[in-house]
Write a structure and sequence with these properties.
Order of helices and strands: HHHHHH
Helix content: 55-70%
Radius of gyration: 18 Å
Shape: elongated
Number of strands: 0
Structural class: mainly alpha
Largest sheet: none
Number of helices: 6
Distance between the termini: 49 Å
Strand content: under 5%
Length: about 110
Amino acid sequence: MSGGDGDMVIPRTFEDALIFENLAVVEGIKGSATSEKIRAIVQRDLTGEELACELFDLLKEAEKAAFALDCLMLEDPKALKPPAYIRAGLTWFEKALSVELAEAAAQENQS
């Protein structure tokens, strides 16, 4: 995943992966002290590596549940995209489930 400066950034937690995937949305999140700190970090002109380190340090002790609730309370919560690894996993699961359902339907029709 690329940071704002084009640096390759590898998320270390779900929260930083979510933030990297949604930088523009996170810049507008308000609510808890954690969300305010995250927003302040994201708004700074940091390299990808600096951003990753700042977020990692903050998220070690932050109230992650408060940030999650602030994300859910966004005016348009669908504006948040899942992190790429979760999106890939859900796509794989959807395909696997579709194949399984198709096979079950074919077996049922043969009976």
